[in-house]
Sequence to fold (475 residues):
Amino acid sequence: MLTLFDVLDALTGPAPQKATQYPITRVVIDSREAEPGALFVALPGERTDGHDFVAEAFAAGAIAALVHRPVAAGCLTVDARHPLPDDWRPPLCIRVEDTLPGLQKLAAHWRSRFHPIIIGITGSVGKTSTKELAAMVLSQKFNVLKNPGNLNNEIGLPLTLLKLDASHRVAVLEMGMYDVGEIETLCRIARPQVGVVTNVGPTHMERLGSIERIAQAKRELVEALPPDGTAILNLDDPRVMAMRNHTRAAIFTYGLSPDADLWADEIVSEGLEGVRFVFHHAGDRIHAKVPLLGRHSVHTALRAAAVGLTQGLHWEEIIAGLQNRQAGVRLVAVPGPNGSILLDDTYNASPASTIAALNLLGELSARRKIAVLGYMAELGAYEEEGHRKVGCRAAGIVDLLIAVGPRAELVAAEAVACGLKPEAAIALPTTQEALAYLKTIAADGDTILIKGSRSMAMETIVAGLSGDDAPGSEA
Fold:
């Protein structure tokens, strides 16, 4: 377990042996989550600064706070130039130049104490589902650490690594980014031996400006791999395959082509029951049926299986992991009002992932197929084209389109231009209006896809339709 000794040793230099008597029960960045024995990291934010809440963290029982400026919290301050006196006792304010690099340095120090296989996962779409499914596969053989939820950035990944202990044989770490250089930073902290790249698409175009820059940013994962590592690359994505020229690691490919090291064919979507297909690898031909929704989810299964194969798992273990319904994949079906079914894919959205979700909707049998599609953010120069493509694809699938948010009119208009009846294309400015409208029309036999960017909070629609206050629900 992480102790105060480890924190001081990493950040201020040699630490007194007495500090080993103080285990760190939890590392938190929100003072409301502090508990007895916690380390509170005071990070500055857009609206608030953690330094203003150090006293609250100590009141909740935290024994130390990581700070980069003086705080009025009644703590003993220690840094590299001011060691602890002999009679010290918590709470401590451990002062560093900047708390974010300090958190990252602590995580890198702690990671270096152990020798797990670190598997990094990045890409424009499918990172979280791949992380969850790969972790489930590996858990058939190993004790696995993974990022909870989407804690995949410069804060979340260090917090995850600080939970590492000697029992963890493997860590599966999703790596997100907004700009070039960020995945390189995450790799310096985590030191992955295996890197999985899902795909490269126009997410974060607003920040990065071009698809080439996005590929460059994602490529940092495979560039960081050691010569005895493995880069698991999507053969079906030319931009991903171009990364093979930028790594010292061995290459393992997956896809839908026999040219891949691991590939799949005979794909049949069975709607809400999942998808079945055949794996091919090194002469093996393995039939599989997994509880993932849509043909596009076969790539997720391929990635998770590839991770398992490279880590020495047998096919029986891999299939058992893939078939475990507890894997926290993003797209799930939940009961809606009046006998309808909701396809909850609300975490985030890009044109590619939205079209994949629409394709799934098209594979299902339903009295009415309804798509509720929110604004897709951070597309930059690709914003108009991306929204038009989604609207046109929806026209060929849905009986009713409800577009929500800043580009709703454009999506609805493009759907009509591509053949959807005008009365079946509705544009609404807010999620609240979309929820209110859906409550009046959802009926038995409807399948309702709900998807949009994180900033749209489309999950509020799912909550409003599936909660106890939804029409047709029982108390």
